[in-house]
């Protein structure tokens, strides 16, 4: 009650939120692994079900708990925007809260960017496998811009041949 502020605290902690980007990047693989091992191993499935029944888990699944960190940064961003909307313009916390929102928004962008990069790399791997691994196109600096059907016109007789293009 003596100093009702949160902006200054969030400002100090917000830079650590960028670490969530790594978690988010590997989230799909982790979920797939849990699914695979739950289907493959009755013992694993039993252990997971047994743990999920514990009171501390709040009757939620492992997958639900795994999703929480993915949702955390967008939730912080939303709550902070709402806080700023309701905060008086002359509040002592306004400047720090605005700076915190800026940092948290950057962390959210960082997470979203990490997801897009991993999706892009995954798609490039799929294309690489489709092409028979003839050329090494899987490189972190490569990016899939567009793919789709095209018509190739022959220079001599103007006949059209269907092709599939990866740009």
Automatic annotation (TrEMBL):
A Pfam entry, by short name: RhoGEF
List the CDD domains.
Answer: RhoGEF
Query: What InterPro entries does its record include?
Result: DBL_dom_sf (IPR035899), DH_dom (IPR000219), FYVE_RhoGEF_PH (IPR051092), PH-like_dom_sf (IPR011993)
Q: Which residues cross the membrane?
A: none
**Superkingdom, according to UniProt?**
Eukaryota
PANTHER family for the chain: FACIOGENITAL DYSPLASIA PROTEIN, FYVE, RHOGEF AND PH DOMAIN-CONTAINING PROTEIN 4
Query: Can you name this protein?
Result: FGD4 protein
- GO MF annotations for this entry? guanyl-nucleotide exchange factor activity
One GO term of the biological process aspect: cytoskeleton organization
- Origin species, per record, is Columbina picui
- PROSITE patterns (alphabetical): DH_2 (PS50010)
DH domain segment(s): 1-114
Q: Name one GO cellular component term.
A: cytoplasm
Extract the Gene3D superfamilies matched here. Answer: Dbl homology (DH) domain, Pleckstrin-homology domain (PH domain)/Phosphotyrosine-binding domain (PTB)
